[in-house]
Design goal:
The chain has 318 residues and is of the alpha/beta class. It is built from eleven helices and eight strands. The chain starts with a helix and ends with a helix.
Length: 318
């Protein structure tokens, strides 16, 4: 059995285990999962309603919120968890609103969550938030007509780094340390991850920031990775190179060719290393695009949205 096949089997087992832990109010969701993943058409169009709920209060005392983008239709709708970027030190659940709305409008329940910022708590606090959010979403998605039989993740920049660690190590005791009391048997395994400009090599990104003399990025890494050695512990590239035990769900990496924050060669190396480890990685280079090109309307932004939709459609047909 290949490592990729084994990883996919682990993901599916995790989803089944998660389904057994759902609260009574989500039994309809379990029935939907038994019938298979709902059909998804990336060309479909739905009206979207937006609401917000409390996720959890972090150790700094801030209430982390979840923003729900719910398609209006029969459903249930496949579900995606959005993890925001901001160099681990800024931004919130609103950071990727245009992408979140675009995905929801074609028939995906999208839930964007706040993450603990580096100034509130260093690594691995935000990865713990993401792990908790994945479990919480599995237990609660039916409230918004969502199906989590193949829960996906969308992550941007440092949120992509968080997404990679969530996906590769969903059962790591450090990352899964926040209990979900209502559904303790659910785990945080995910079926796929779509990303824009992820920080897939934390130390290489730091070295690039030093070369560029980008004090903001240098300081962001130093504040987040405290103690400093954790920049290697929590480095997806190095985790693969060390041969650590990981799960390897399919990845989509959308990378700007003109990105001077996370260099294209870093991403290409990570994509190749991920494939060599047995995982599937769809690496797409976007010409004439900088680190946050999707923040501005334009043909490359439109292309990124369509690429994400098509990737998700492929994963939901597996």
């Amino acid at each position: 059995m290949s490592q990729d096949t084994s990883a996919r089997r682990d993901v599916l087992k995790g989803m089944v285990a998660g389904a057994t832990g759902l609260a009574a109010g989500t039994l309809g969701q379990g029935a939907a999962q038994a019938a298979g993943t709902p059909a998804y058409n990336p060309g479909a169009r739905f009206e979207v309603t937006v609401s917000e709920v409390e996720l959890r209060r972090n150790t700094a005392g801030r209430m982390l919120m979840a923003r729900i983008y719910q398609p209006q239709g029969a459903g249930p709708f496949p579900t995606v968890l959005d993890l925001h970027g901001g160099a681990w030190s800024r931004k919130d659940r609103l950071a990727e609103e245009p992408m979140d709305r675009a995905l929801a409008a074609c028939g995906l329940l999208v839930v964007a969550v706040d993450l603990t910022l580096a100034g509130e708590a260093p690594y691995p606090a935000c990865i713990q938030d993401a792990n908790y959010a994945a479990r919480w979403l599995k237990a609660n998605a039916a409230r918004w007509n969502g199906d989590v039989s193949r829960l996906g993740v969308y992550g941007s920049s440092s949120g992509g780094h968080v997404a990679e660690l969530l996906a590769m190590k969903p059962r790591d005791p450090r990352y899964a340390s926040i209990p979900l009391a209502a559904s303790p048997d659910i785990d945080a395994t995910v079926a796929y991850v779509a990303m824009r400009s992820p920080v897939s090599n934390t130390f290489a990104r730091y070295q690039n920031a030093e070369r560029r003399r980008s004090e903001a990025l240098i300081n962001a890494s130093k504040v987040f990775f405290s103690p400093w050695e954790t920049i290697h512990e929590g480095n997806p590239q190095e985790i693969l190179e060390r041969g650590e035990k990981v799960i390897l769900p399919p990845l989509l990496i959308m990378q700007g060719a003109l990105d001077d924050n996370v260099l294209p060669e870093m991403q290409e190396k990570f994509a190749n290393t991920y494939r060599a480890a047995g995982g599937e990685c769809d690496y797409r280079l976007f010409e004439n695009s900088v680190h946050e090109w999707v923040a501005e309307p334009g043909p490359q932004t439109d292309k990124a949205r369509e690429t994400a939709k098509e990737f998700i459609a492929r994963q939901l047909k597996v």
